[in-house]
């Protein structure tokens, strides 16, 4: 010591330190002593791969490949594994020849926390072992011969979780950890880390911070301890994904604070959980909702029991309180809990529902209160008792910001356990309302509900942990039913309608996955007035039975008026399809229809504008909704007027495809005869276009002349035709036609045609001809007429623009050229040369 105090000694020490600083020699032989020193402080076996000395910023060692073994009863894997560790040494013990670690700092270590089958943690046994070692406090400079407990710290650490030999997916990353001995009988620790799991991609799980102090005790269960935990900046969706493996679709900012004090045998727990801006992931609005609860309990870690639980949450002027006991932790956790709700304002509950269920109106207002008391008790897997009752009182909903109210009155609530062996509530209750649903469930109602003047319905339902089922039965007004559906967020198409209905409806769905609810049931419609945007005539439904099935909507026993037409029959439409793929089905009968009326249905109509826009440019006419419909089915019409041609007893298979009407297997009585064929009508075209093929049998030519506004022909005829035409009247159709016609006429006359030898009218016993039609020109070749004075050959053309240009030749080679029109034909004698000039092929 005198040498070190002399000038020579000081120079020698400085020279030695300089050499060590410049060359940093290996101290491989010391690694066993360093490992033993660390192991003695921790009570664990420690191994080190290599050691190097460093002088700055504090004398010590750089340790490579540090491994702190775990207790074999927990795991064969190391408790700590670190490649880069800095160990600072204490100088005073070193001068006395004793190596003592002051600080042990690990960078990016891997730490394994293990719980064995008895429920004990390897960290707890390490702390117990440390408490038994007669070490001096970490900051004690005069240790009295005892080694001081080192200051242990780790940065950017990864803390893994193991249950037995199974490594769990959860972990703490980027952890900052420190452990030290504060005094002779107390220790301290702090940690900050980001929770994660290795099997999913997580981002905003927040930061968990913990500070703990504990004291020496004879046993771990009697160790006095104080722990504070703060979990902040967590995103609710990512935290649910952390615990369950998937994002359940909830959003919000999570903050949890907790304080644990006492001993593990009797640990007092105080906590506060707060979720700000709570909402469902796809709900975007300006509402701000905070969910908050304060809890206190006493936890016995030895028995795994949670007792004297009290959780309080404030809602407006009301409150909710959860009290009871639970534990021990196991597969069938026993519990005895009570939930009390006192004067909870319904607007608070509605705000929670609005942030949880999509489709509710943003301006939905409510009034009322909730009072209830529910009990939940389970002693084992077989003994499950849930019961309690309450109600929602003076309920009023206003989906239009208070403009219109729906009065619910008082809604009773009853909690029951049910029979766990029965089917799920959503499936079971559709059969009967008297059977008890499966498992734990909350009965809502039944309660009376007024949905219109003079109407009365009954509503109610059942909620289970997996799904829900609601019903509505009774008389209602459709407008009131729409308001109710809007208020509770039932999706679906709502045509403008007024009238009444007797309903038996149910709505069911699952809590998982945010699936849209399914509405099923029937509605007996009466005196309903409705319509479709862009469709000119209104629709009046005198009666009809509406049925909602899972995949379709059916309207049976329909009796309705559209314009001057009365309809009866059935219609069915799919519920789930893209608009362009939806195909409606129908089986309808009408008393009368007309082509003019059909054209009006498919026509575009100007949109009505308010008076103050009278000088603004005209809006584009709204397109008829029938142009966007695809439908097929059977139709029967008692009387049909097409271009002023009357047809009766019409029956056909009809296909409607965006304004194209196809009539297959069309049968009808036409011109006192019968018709069979196929018609295609382009109803959206202006003027309407027709493509027709078929047969006419025993047609009255007198009726044909009447349709052409002149009785120019009589008799009966058969025809086979394939024609296309455009027009609104029958003469227009004849003038704008293409195709071919095979005609056979019997026992008639051409009333305006007279030959000098025969006089008027020209009699016809049999007339057969083939006619080609092109651009309204009717070309007839090799026609044959049997009259009372012989057989005639007829050929030539006829058209509205050019009139008649026909050649009539009798068997004795007498020739006549017929010009003029059908209504005023002019026959003149013609020679063979003249006939060849007039009639060209």
Could you explain the architecture of this structure?
With 841 residues, the chain is mainly beta. Among the domains are: 27-199, no CATH class; 202-302; 308-417, no CATH class. Helix content is 13%, strand content 53%. The chain contains 13 helices and 42 strands. The protein has a 42-stranded mixed sheet that branches. The model is unreliable at 19-26, 420-434, 610-616 and 837-841 (pLDDT under 50).
List the helices and strands and how they pair.
Blueprint: H1 2-5, H2 7-23, H3 31-42, E1 46-47, E2 50-54, E3 60-68, E4 80-89, H4 91-95, E5 101-107, E6 110-115, H5 122-132, E7 151-163, E8 166-183, E9 186-197, E10 207-215, E11 225-235, H6 236-244, E12 250-263, E13 266-280, E14 291-300, E15 305-315, E16 318-326, E17 335-345, H7 346-356, E18 365-378, E19 384-398, E20 406-416, H8 425-428, E21 441-449, E22 457-464, E23 467-477, H9 478-487, E24 497-510, E25 518-530, E26 539-548, E27 552-562, E28 565-574, E29 584-594, H10 595-602, E30 630-642, E31 645-657, E32 660-670, E33 673-682, E34 689-700, H11 701-707, E35 716-726, H12 730-735, E36 737-750, E37 762-774, E38 777-787, E39 790-799, E40 803-810, E41 815-820, E42 825-829, H13 832-838
Number of strands: 42
Structural class: mainly beta
Into which percent range does the helicity of residues fall?
A: 10-25%
How would a textbook summarize the main sheet? 42 strands, mixed
Unreliable stretches covering 5 or more consecutive residues: 19-26, 420-434, 610-616, 837-841
Kindly, what is the distance between the CA atoms of the first and last residues, rounded to a whole number of angstroms?
142 Å
Strand portion, in percent?
over 45%
Please, what is the average pLDDT? Answer: 82
- What general form does the structure show? elongated
Number of helices: 13
Radius of gyration: 47 Å
């Amino acid at each position: 010591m005198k040498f070190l105090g002399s000038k020579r000694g000081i120079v020698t020490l400085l020279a030695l330190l300089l050499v060590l600083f410049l060359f940093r020699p290996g101290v491989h032989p010391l690694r066993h002593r360093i490992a033993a020193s660390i192991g003695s402080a921790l009570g664990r076996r420690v191994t080190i791969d290599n050691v190097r000395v460093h002088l700055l910023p504090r004398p010590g060692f750089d340790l490579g490949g540090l491994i702190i073994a775990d207790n074999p009863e927990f795991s064969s894997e190391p408790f700590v594994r670190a490649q880069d560790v800095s160990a600072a040494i204490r100088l005073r013990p070193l001068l006395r020849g004793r190596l003592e670690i002051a600080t042990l700092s690990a960078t990016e270590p891997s730490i394994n926390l293990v719980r064995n089958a008895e429920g004990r943690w390897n960290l707890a046994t390490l702390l117990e072992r440390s408490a038994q070692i007669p070490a001096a406090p970490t900051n004690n400079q005069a240790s009295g011969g005892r080694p001081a407990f080192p200051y242990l710290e780790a940065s950017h650490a990864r803390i893994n979780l193991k249950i037995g030999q199974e490594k769990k997916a959860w972990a703490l990353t980027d952890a900052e950890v420190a452990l030290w001995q504060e005094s002779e009988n107390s220790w301290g620790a702090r940690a900050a880390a980001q929770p994660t799991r290795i099997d999913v991609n997580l981002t905003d799980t927040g930061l968990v911070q913990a500070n703990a102090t504990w004291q020496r005790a004879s046993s771990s269960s009697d160790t006095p301890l104080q722990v504070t935990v703060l979990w902040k900046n967590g995103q609710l969706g990512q935290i649910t994904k952390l615990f369950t493996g998937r994002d359940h679709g909830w959003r919000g900012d999570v903050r949890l604070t907790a304080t644990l004090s006492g001993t593990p045998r009797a640990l007092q727990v105080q906590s506060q959980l707060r979720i700000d801006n709570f909402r469902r992931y796809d709900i975007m609005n300006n509402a701000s909702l905070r969910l908050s609860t304060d809890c206190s309990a006493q936890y016995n870690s030895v028995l795994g029991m949670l007792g004297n639980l009290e959780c309080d949450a404030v809602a407006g002027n009301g409150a909710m309180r959860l009290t009871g006991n639970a534990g021990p932790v196991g597969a069938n956790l026993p519990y005895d809990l009570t939930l009390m709700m006192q004067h909870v304002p319904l607007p608070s509950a509605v705000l929670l529902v609005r942030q949880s269920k999509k489709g509710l109106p943003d301006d939905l207002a409510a009034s009322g209160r909730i009072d209830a008391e529910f009990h939940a008790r389970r002693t084992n897997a077989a003994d499950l008792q849930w019961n309690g009752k309450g109600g929602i009182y003076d309920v009023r909903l206003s989906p239009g910001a208070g403009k219109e109210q729906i009065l619910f009155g008082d809604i009773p609530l009853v909690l029951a356990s049910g029979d766990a062996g029965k089917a799920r509530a959503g499936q079971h209750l559709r059969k009967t309302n008297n059977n008890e649903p499966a498992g734990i469930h909350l009965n809502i109602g039944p309660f009376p509900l007024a949905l219109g003047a003079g109407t009365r319905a009954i509503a109610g339902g059942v909620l289970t942990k997996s799904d829900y089922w609601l019903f509505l039965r009774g008389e209602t007004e459709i407008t009131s039913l729409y308001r109710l559906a809007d208020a509770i967020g039932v999706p679906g198409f709502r045509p403008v309608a007024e009238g009444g209905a007797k309903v038996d409806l149910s709505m069911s769905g699952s809590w998982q996955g945010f699936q849209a609810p399914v509405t099923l049931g029937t509605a007996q419609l009466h005196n309903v007035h409705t319509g479709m945007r862009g469709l000119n005539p209104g629709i009046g439904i005198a009666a009809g039975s509406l049925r909602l099935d899972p995949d379709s909507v059916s309207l049976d026993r329909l009796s309705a008026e559209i314009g001057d037409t009365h309809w009866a029959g059935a219609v069915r439409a799919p519920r789930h399809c893209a608009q362009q793929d939806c195909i409606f089905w129908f089986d309808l009968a009408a008393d009368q229809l007309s082509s003019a009326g059909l054209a009006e249905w498919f026509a575009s109509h100007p949109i009505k504008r308010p008076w103050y826009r009278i000088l603004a440019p005209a809006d584009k006419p709204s397109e008829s909704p029938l142009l966007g419909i695809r439908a097929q089915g059977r139709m029967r019409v008692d009387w049909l007027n097409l271009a002023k041609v009357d047809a009766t007893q019409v029956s056909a298979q009809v296909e409607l495809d965006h304004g194209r009407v196809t009539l297959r297997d069309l049968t009808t009585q036409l011109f006192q005869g019968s018709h069979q064929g196929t018609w295609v009508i382009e109803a959206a075209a202006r003027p309407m276009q027709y493509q027709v093929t078929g047969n006419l049998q025993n047609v009255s030519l007198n009726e044909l002349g009447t349709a052409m506004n002149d009785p120019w022909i009589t008799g009966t005829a058969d025809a086979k035709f394939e024609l296309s035409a455009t027009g609104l009247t029958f003469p227009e159709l004849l003038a704008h036609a293409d195709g071919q016609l095979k005609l056979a006429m019997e026992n008639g006359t051409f009333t305006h045609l007279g030959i000098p030898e025969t006089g008027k009218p020209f009699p016809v016993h049999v007339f057969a001809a083939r006619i080609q039609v092109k651009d309204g020109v009717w070309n007839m070749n090799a026609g044959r007429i049997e009259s009372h004075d012989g057989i005639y050959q007829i050929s030539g053309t006829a058209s509205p623009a050019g009139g008649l240009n026909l050649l009539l030749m009798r068997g004795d080679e007498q020739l006549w050229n017929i010009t003029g029109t059908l209504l005023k034909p002019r026959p003149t004698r013609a020679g063979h040369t003249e006939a060849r000039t007039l009639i060209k092929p």
